[in-house]
Structure formats: structure tokens, C-alpha cells
Amino acid sequence: MRKSLWAILAMVLAGGCAQVPPEMQVVDDAAAALGGKDRMQSAKTLVIEGEGSAPNVGQNTMPDGELPVWKVTQFKRTIDLANRRTRVQQVRTAQFLFANATVQRQNQGLDGDVAYNVGPDGKATRAGDVAAHDRRIELLHHPITIVRAALDPAAKVANLRQQGQEQLVDVTTAKGDTLTLAVDAATKLPSRVRSMSDNANMGDVAIETTFSGYEEVNGLKLPKRLTTKMDKYLQFDMQVAKNTVDADAGDLAAPEAVKSAAAPAPAAVSVTAEPVGKGIWWLAGSGNHRSVVFEFDDHLTLFEVPVNEARSKAVIDKARTLSQKPLAQAIVSHHHFDHSGGLRVAVAEGLTIITQRANEAFFKDLIARKHVIAPDALAKNPKPLKMELVDDELTLKDTSMEVHLYHLLDNPREGTNLFAYVPRDRILVQADLYDSTWQQHLWGENVLWNIEHRKLRVDKDVPVHGQIEPFAQMVRTIKAKSSIPAGN
């Protein structure tokens, strides 16, 4: 009798020890709903084909306006589940005014920790470590891949909570990446996945992909629609035309030459200073984003803090070598992310921001955002935002320098753009109005109309993009490659 009691007690204790933690129960339930652990883990490949729309974040006409959209066709993601390899191939077409090729083909791969891109000639080149990290996270934004990752014995699942009709758990993968998995409490199917990332302009952002319209394919349930947002902005809304499980995926391994190559380091920033008038310097160097410095009686003013903190900090430092006078102001031509990328470092450096009035609320939001994941200059050295806002025009003038700032009117692409004019030298300083290297100048006629409307006598274009040119050459190029009518 005593033996039986001990045997029963041992069985009860063993059963208690084997009880699945509630966090893992959510994962187990999701696996069962998707087709079962065995079927999920035995799946070798997954191919997702479809089309959709991919808005271009940070490039809208107005800061609060609709985003310009790439129409994505012939989208195909091939996944080697066992080896953590993937290839994404797509064709996208610009549904907005664009200066270069409006149809683009992309072919990007990931082999473990090696990211690579395949050019039109079929040659693969290694991409940087940031691209590898981002593609690894993107690969987990699918029900099958995130649940498989959560089932890995080396993964950690924690922080179970309820949110509306969803159960949420945090999954830290074997690689150390943390994502949040949300599961529908009724169907047990994954409803969304969220990961946190750093965006140079917006700081800490949530990237979230929602899943809907599940269908059964070869023993697995797979979503027919995947919608990804970054913060409040839509990134990609894809309608799946075809899901395929265990098809021949071909060889997704990175070529040996790519694997053996070192991951490219971030491009070095160089800034050169070329005098273009008395007390005016054009800051060029690496990349295709330039800035301009104007020297006044007792201070310097910088036109454009572009791209990111690294570029803009180098530009600010270079400007301060040009004169003993303090750098006091930064003119931000417009809100597009590649032109306002240095906004936060400019504020951290104590500069007053001059910009068009419609940017005020947007820039205040960018300054207020948290940058915890990758602290930037302003996060490390908080400073108040000082702004001088321009409605239609503003003149900056003393005995040394006279600069007129004008709001670009009625432009189909640029809603908050300010361009500058120096009457003494008849110099036009502009960003995104014209670049001699553009393939087409679809808003160029409007630019010429704006210059005529302001009654400006321009001899030379000193651009943020491209090379310095005589204004007459700028006009000839626009006339040859423009199809958008002039303004009012």
C-alpha cells in the first residue's frame, strides 16, 4: 500500500514538473493552429509570391500628407527554413514623380549572418552588417518563422499578457533578437509580430506586421495578407497570390566569394569646402548631399544639414573652420528625411533652425522623440529647439551678406521647400529642385516658373544635389527633360 502511495505521488510530481509554462503554452497553441509542431518543424522551404504597395516614408509632399507609393509587382520571397536563408526578388514602379528610373528591380539575399545583393548582371556583392541584422529580423515577421524561432530550445519566451482579444509574449531568439508575438485568443493563430528598431530621423520605432486571411497549404496555415508598418507609417501591404510549402527553392547560399569577403564598413564621411562667392562656401565631398555656408557680419549660417548625424556633424565641424565667427543658424530646406537627417544634431550643436512654417509641428515631433536604442547627439546632449519660421519669404541681411529665402510655390512634389538667392552674386542655392545627373526633370518647369515669378536674375546654380552649373545650362537641361507644365 505504501509503495502504491509513493508511486502515485511520484507520478503527480512528475506531471507537475512537466507542466508547460503559460508563455510556452501560447507558442504551442499557435504551432498547433498553424498545422502542428511536427509539420512546422519538418517544413523545408516556404515561397511567398504576390504584389502590393510600399509607401516611401519621409518623402511626402507635406509632412502630414499621404506618402508617395511604390507599386510592387512580381514579389517573391523564398525561404530555406532549416538553414536560415532567404532571397527576396521584386519589381517596383514609382506611382509618384521621381527623378530617376521609375521601374526598379531588386534582388536581395540573406545567408545566416551574411547579407548580399544581386545586381542586374547576376553578380552578388556583400551588404553591410546593418542590412544583415535588418533582414534577419524581417525574416521573423511571418507566422511560421517566428513560431519556429520561439520553439527553439535556445530561445526564451516571457512576459505573457492579454491585450484585447490577443495574447502577447516576448520571444528572444537563439541569436538574441527580441520580438513580440501576438496570438488571437480565439483561433490561436498569430495575428501580428512586432520588433523595435532605430530610425535615424524618428528614433525608437516599432515595426509591426499583421497577418490575415489564413489558408491551408500542404498541411500548414499561411496568411494571404501581410501588412507592415513602421511607427504610424505603412511600409508594405502585400496581397499573397500564392503560398508554396516544400517546393524546390534552389540554392539560396551566398556565393563563397561573398561569404569570404568582409562586410563593408559604413562609408567614410569627407567634406570639402569650395568658395563660390565672397563669404560663400559650397561644402561637398563624399556622397551627393552638399551644404552651403554664408558669412554674415558676426555669424555663419549653414544651408542644409542633410542625410544623417554623421554627415551633418562633419558639415558643421567643417563650417566652423571657415571663419572665427560662430555658426549660429541652419536652414533646413524641406522636411524630406534625407534633407532633415541632421536636424537633431544641429539642435544639439545649439543652432537655430530656419525652415518653412509647415514644418514646425513635424520638426517639433522629431526633436521630442526618444532615441534610446541608438542614442544620438541630442539624446546625449539635450538642447531646446530654436526655430525661425518662414511663410512666403525671408531676407537675411547685414553689411556683409544678403540672402533671400523663398517658399517654392505650387510644386507637385515639394510642399515645404525653401530655396535661397544671393542677389550680389546672382547665385541660386537649392535642394531637390534640380540635379544635373537626374534622368528626368518632371517638376523642373515649375522651378523655372518660381524663379521667374520672384523676378530673380540667376547666373549660377549652387545645388545640394549634383554639380555647380551656369543657370543657362540648368534651363537647357530642364527644357530637354521636363514634361510637367509650369505653375499658375
Features of the shown structure:
alpha+beta; outer membrane lipoprotein receptor (LolB), chain A; Metallo-beta-lactamase, Chain A; 28 strands; disordered N terminus
Question: What does this 3D model show about the protein?
Answer:
The chain has 488 residues and is α+β, with helices and mostly antiparallel strands. It has 2 domains: 21-260, Clam (outer membrane lipoprotein receptor (LolB), chain A); 271-481, 4-Layer Sandwich (Metallo-beta-lactamase, Chain A). Helix 2 (22-34) crosses helix 5 (143-151). It is elongated, with a radius of gyration of 27 Å. The model is unreliable at 1-16 (pLDDT under 50).
Provide a brief overview of the structure:
This protein is of the alpha+beta class.
Supply the CATH superfamily name of the largest domain: Lipoprotein localisation LolA/LolB/LppX
Helical content band: 10-25%
Principal-axis shape: elongated
| CATH architecture tag of the largest domain | Clam
Strand order of the largest sheet: 6-5-4-3-2-1-15-14-11-10-9-8-7
Total of DSSP H or I helical runs spanning 4+ residues = 13
CATH fold annotation of the largest domain: outer membrane lipoprotein receptor (LolB), chain A
CATH class of the largest domain: Mainly Beta
What's the alpha carbon Rg, rounded to whole Å? Answer: 27 Å
Biggest sheet character: 13 strands, antiparallel
Strand content: 35-45%
Total domain modules: 2
